[in-house]
């Protein structure tokens, strides 16, 4: 798995290059060249406004200055009392939209993730429903009486009712509610005691170039639902799962040819709605 971490480091309020130690302040000015006294006047970098919120650093990369209404994305679950949050940052060699496609259609669980969390019946059982709320696209899948996931953590090997509520929020956010409850206890509406896995997760597909993407992730759980060891096991498993996705999508990117005709299947409904929304928003911004 490739980390998207920079090779430089933050020293005080400044950023120090990991190569020769050149140090830049918050305005992008070079304030130190360790090997000499004179600082070349052109040694500066472009600064961007940033804001820290709910465990993420949001970077404002536009040419215009942020206005009052330009707030960073709000994911309150990452800073909510009673919930624990775990983060990850990856980088993949693919168009960011392929990552959003992947997250809009979780029927890939039984195939891409067959060695980790994949469980039989996800693709075959249940029907997805696609809704639009303004510019948001929401895919809901409820699967009854299928094989469980995360048995090593939950200790429950009976069949479960599984839910996936996937919300695409333009331009690049995917909020997921995913969980399992013991079969027949109410699924998403089951009592907490019957819920085995219950997570709210945010995935951010930030384009870096046309064919590379930063993949930021945070997952939240009720803090009393698992021991620290169980939480760590789920986190480790999930990093394997994210890596499986990154490798699959990189494979798609290397084979993608815009001249090939695309064939849609019914599970693509959410992705098609997402792509149509994105295209419209991008056209509106360019107009
Ligand atoms: Fe996946």
Can you give a write-up of this model?
Strand 12 and strand 13 form a beta hairpin. Helix 1 packs antiparallel against helix 5. This protein is globular. Helices cover 22% and strands 32% of the residues. The strands form three sheets. A seven-stranded antiparallel sheet has the order 7-13-12-11-10-9-8. Strands 1-2-3-4 form a four-stranded antiparallel sheet, with no helix packed on it. The protein is of the alpha+beta class. It folds into two domains: 9-51, no CATH class; 79-257 and 265-286, Naphthalene 1,2-dioxygenase Alpha Subunit, Chain A, domain 1, CATH 3.90.380.10. Fe (ii) ion binds next to helix 4.
Write out key terms for the chains shown.
alpha+beta; seven-stranded antiparallel β-sheet; four-stranded antiparallel β-sheet; 32% strand
The total tally of domains equals 2
Give start-end ranges of low-pLDDT stretches. none
- Indicate the proportion of strand residues: 25-35%
In angstroms, what separates the terminal alpha carbons? 39 Å
Order of helices and strands: EEEEEEEHHEEHEEEEHH
What is the strand arrangement across the widest sheet?
Answer: 7-13-12-11-10-9-8
The oligomerization state is: single chain
Using the 3D structure, state the CATH architecture of the largest domain. Answer: Alpha-Beta Complex
Question: Which ligands occur here?
Answer: fe (ii) ion
Which term fits the overall shape? Answer: globular
> Which CATH first-tier class of the largest domain would you pick?
Alpha Beta
Q: Number of DSSP strands?
A: 13
Mean pLDDT: 91
CATH topology of the largest domain: Naphthalene 1,2-dioxygenase Alpha Subunit, Chain A, domain 1
* Number of alpha- plus pi-helical segments: 5
């Amino acid at each position: 798995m490739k980390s998207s971490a920079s090779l430089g480091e933050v020293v005080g309020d400044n950023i120090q290059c990991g190569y020769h130690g050149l140090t830049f302040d918050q305005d992008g000015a070079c304030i130190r060249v360790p090997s000499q006294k004179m600082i070349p006047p052109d040694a500066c970098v472009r600064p961007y406004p940033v804001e820290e919120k709910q465990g993420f650093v949001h970077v404002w990369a536009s040419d215009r200055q942020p206005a009052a209404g330009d707030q960073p994305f709000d994911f309150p679950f990452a800073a909510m009392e009673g919930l624990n949050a775990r983060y990850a940052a990856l980088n993949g060699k693919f168009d960011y939209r392929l990552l959003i496609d992947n997250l809009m259609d979780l029927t890939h669980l039984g195939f891409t993730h067959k060695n980790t969390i994949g469980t039989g019946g996800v693709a075959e059982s249940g029907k997805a429903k696609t809704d639009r709320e303004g510019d948001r696209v929401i895919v809901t899948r409820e699967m009854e009486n299928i094989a469980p996931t995360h048995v090593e953590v939950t200790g429950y090997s009976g069949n479960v009712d599984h839910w996936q509520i996937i919300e695409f929020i333009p331009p690049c956010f995917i909020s997921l509610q995913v969980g399992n409850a013991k079969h027949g206890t109410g699924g998403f509406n089951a009592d907490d005691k019957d819920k085995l896995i219950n997570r709210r997760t945010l995935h951010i597909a930030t384009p870096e170039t046309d064919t590379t993407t930063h993949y930021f992730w945070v997952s939240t759980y009720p803090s009393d639902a698992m021991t620290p060891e169980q939480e760590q096991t789920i986190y480790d498993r999930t990093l394997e799962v994210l890596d499986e996705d990154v490798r699959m999508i990189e494979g798609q990117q290397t084979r993608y040819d815009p001249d090939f005709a695309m064939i849609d299947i019914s599970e693509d409904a959410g992705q098609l709605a997402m792509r149509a929304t994105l295209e419209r928003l991008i056209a509106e911004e360019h107009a």
